[in-house]
Amino acid sequence: MEKENMSYGNDYKYIPATSIGSGAEHQIAAHLYYQTTQIVNVCYLSDPEKNEWVLVDAGMPKSADHILSFAEEHFGSNRPPRAIILTHGHFDHVGAVIELVNHWDVPVYAHPLEMPFLTGEQNYPEPDSTVEGGLIAKMSPLFPNESINLGNHVHELPKDGTVPEMNGWRWVHTPGHTPGHVSLFREEDRSLIVGDAFVTVKQDSLYNVLTQELEINGPPRYLTTDWEAAWDSVRKLEALKPALAITGHGSPISGNVLSNSLQQLVSDFENIAIPDYGKYVHKKKH
Ligand SMILES: [Zn+2]
Hints:
Elements: E1 25-29, E2 32-37, E3 40-47, E4 52-56, H1 64-75, E5 84-85, H2 97-104, E6 108-110, H3 134-139, E7 154-156, E8 169-173, E9 182-186, E10 191-195, H4 206-211, H5 227-239, E11 244-247, E12 253-254, H6 255-267, H7 269-272
Parallel strand pairs: 4-5, 5-6, 6-7, 10-11
Antiparallel strand pairs: 1-2, 2-3, 3-4, 8-9, 9-10, 11-12
The structure holds zinc ion.
């Protein structure tokens, strides 16, 4: 099949934001690594039996070299991943995807409902800079929201919940932050790759984003458009009883701290996560 050209949106650009976690690389569980590109985490899942691996998410704009050097160091220079899996298509999760696909010539997978945002058909809504929540929200008009176009390099995740090329993992639909948002779960050790269904840093404070102080919160506010769905998604993830969670933003969280704070988030989502006001907020008055 003829490979189609790929392009970023016209508003694609480097975002000058960083955190003390930036550049960190860690093995966090068996055959599971994460790397922080500026303010967002990408994950590497490997299958020791087949000696194969997949990449989950593609970092901030202009982070391709950072991701490529990690991959070469850990898997060897002639060992491309079998696939790139996207939790969703926001700019900070697809920032290097075109360079990576060009370099490795590998397929990209995403949920069917995320496809319009990955094939140039539909832009994400504008970030809501008026939402309750301080400096990062105020910065958010800088953030690219135009659809990228991956053409026929992007494919739908299999309907049966399996993760392409990676045994032992399954994907879970966790909409709300975006319509086709997914999280990935490994039953064996209850490892969870959350994406932005919840985060462990309070994004409404620039100070917290810089220091990545651990604090569980709902999805990033300025880009979340369906808060009821987001709440249901957090319920769904809590019900999986994860032992370890790597979120798209912030530090990994595990054990009792994870289970307690996730329960808290589910029961008090309205106060912890849902902003008091904003374009995409329709809070019922109690
Ligand atoms: Zn996002």
